């Protein structure tokens, strides 16, 4: 990634909330990790300070081992208290110039420090039923404050940008769409559990927003109607919340007799194997800020079946991929049955050149640098 090294006379200090890296591989943590791997270098015009209230997950240790990273494990207060008590003190102590919030929230007070924030979605407005009660109220109360206070908002998609503008139209000048990237996995490793061939694959945390219950219900219904349906279903992901019944069935292997298999929290090499070996990729989410797994499936040339929601139309192609009404079991049954009659290979090579992590990191860094260069116009 080309880094601009000579534009600034001073190396501004950027504090980064890296709590997403404490939870293993999710869409949020992958986005942040891939960007930091490209930004935290000796050539960077910015100096990054990384903060978390929890230990970083082992899959991201390479970021901590980077000699140019400055990581601080700053106490064990819960998230809200840590963000609003510990971080303001660190901003002052470490003499930060900018603070970058990566979980859609900023401290209630950042002093005179410039601030940027990532926004992946506006779930508290568009899909409140997919959030825990505590998370809903936290974002319902604090997101408007964060959006007003932030000097720059990185939107994960054009859909997220539109949602924010529908909420507060005057925020347009500070919104910048920065899509995630995708790259080939470096290596493959077969899961420890034995899986059948020609399987359909989906990945997601076991939680309401990922809508895996609807997909499983549709698959089981399809198998009842047509016991010769040729594609098994493989679900990969980590345990979440409000999905106890499905979680138990998957962990016990109770659904394997019906052709449904579970791979818990797979490493990247196993994910790579699953994407490459599957016959098609399924993504039934009720709501997403973007949908990074779809990019990973497209990178492998897979046909996708996804929920018919606006953001997925920024990625997929009607006529090539299939769409289903998110919560309509019959719609999913129809879409899955259509796979039997569809050529399960994309008609042309997918162009990944506009979906690279290098480009994502470059846009993030450009945003932070431009923010610093225009600080005199923004200081409150």
Question: What is the topological layout?
Answer:
Blueprint: E1 13-17, H1 27-39, E2 47-52, H2 61-65, E3 70-73, H3 79-93, E4 98-101, E5 114-119, H4 123-126, H5 133-149, E6 152-155, H6 158-167, E7 175-177, E8 200-203, H7 212-225, E9 233-237, H8 244-252, E10 260-264, H9 268-277, E11 280-283, H10 292-299, E12 304-307, E13 322-324, H11 329-338, H12 357-373, H13 375-378
Parallel strand pairs: 1-2, 1-4, 2-3, 4-5, 5-6, 6-7, 8-9, 8-11, 9-10, 11-12, 12-13
Helix pairs in contact: 1-12, 7-11
Descriptive report:
This protein is of the alpha/beta class and 380 residues long. The chain folds into two domains: 13-181 and 356-378, Rossmann fold, CATH 3.40.50.2000; 200-341, Glycogen Phosphorylase B (Rossmann fold), CATH 3.40.50.2000. It is built from 13 helices and 13 strands. It has helices at 27-39, 61-65, 79-93, 123-126, 133-149, 158-167, 212-225, 244-252, 268-277, 292-299, 329-338, 357-373, 375-378; strands at 13-17, 47-52, 70-73, 98-101, 114-119, 152-155, 175-177, 200-203, 233-237, 260-264, 280-283, 304-307, 322-324. The strands form two sheets. A seven-stranded parallel sheet has the order 3-2-1-4-5-6-7, sandwiched between helices. The protein has a six-stranded parallel sheet with strand order 10-9-8-11-12-13, sandwiched between helices. The chain is elongated, with a radius of gyration of 21 Å. It starts with 12 loop residues before the first strand and ends with a helix. The model has no long low-confidence stretch (mean pLDDT 92).
